[in-house]
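Troubleshooting log. The previous structure file for this entry was overwritten by mistake, so regenerating from the original sequence record. Sequence copied from the archived sheet and checked twice against the printout by T.R.
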Amino acid sequence: MSFFISSENINIPNMIYGTAWKKDKTSSLVYEALREGFKGIDTAGQPRHYNEKGVGEGIDKSFKDNIIKRDELYIQTKFTPIDGQDKNNMPYLITDDLKTQIRKSFEKSKLNLKVEYIDSYILHSPIFPGKKLIEAWLTMEEFYHSKEIGQLGISNCYDLDVLKYLYNNSEVKPAIVQNRFYAQSGYDKEIRVWCKQMGILYQSFWSLTANPEIVNSSLINQLSKKYNKTKEQIFYKFLNELGIIPLNGTTSNEHMKLDLNIKDFNLEKAEIETINNML
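Regenerated output below.
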């Protein structure tokens, strides 16, 4: 497995295991993912879509079984604003103010994950108006300054102006942008260019499921035969070549092994450009 180095000098694996929608299978799937070679885990303090406690149980079991050590594992979780939560099952109270929501959610995440340090803490979506966004970010910065997290990031941010506003009004700059990778957002082309200029790493989710036309295209099929790799391996390699770190949420042990096995070949520059023209 290869790594990208963030602006905070944190090693981020070239592919991260995503844990959304895994429910009661979360613990066993996280354990299997780590056993198969994943070095990064993504989750969130959002019981509606994530079983963060199950993620912690899978990680803890992998530590105890000597599958991976803490300093070898990239752990990333998120603060989810109230609009993204199930109001009947949240890591904070509906009556809590924003700062209290974030502090409670962060403490709950550390408890769930059974760690005192989180490599990357992500704001799950922008908060409006802008004043509230900055209030949330400044609260998250507290964890950075107390050395409880290594870096900050934001997810589901598809407006470059919002991202620039956050960057320009923060002390601790975002090191990560994690977005859905799909045609409706124009594949975040402008955002990705700007992120590269500013030293911000871009993570993608829904990379395969939102792009069946590309993954199953004749070009990807041809490259699959040429390199003796699966279509998914070709597409993941392509994303890495663009500087994108994809999340991978497979529940198949076979796919875990295969998807991680993309280090032993390189796409030609012309092939990368041809696939990129399909976006």
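The beta strands are 3-5, 11-13, 16-18, 40-42, 74-79, 118-123, 149-155, 176-180, 201-205, 244-248. Archived copy saved in two places this time.
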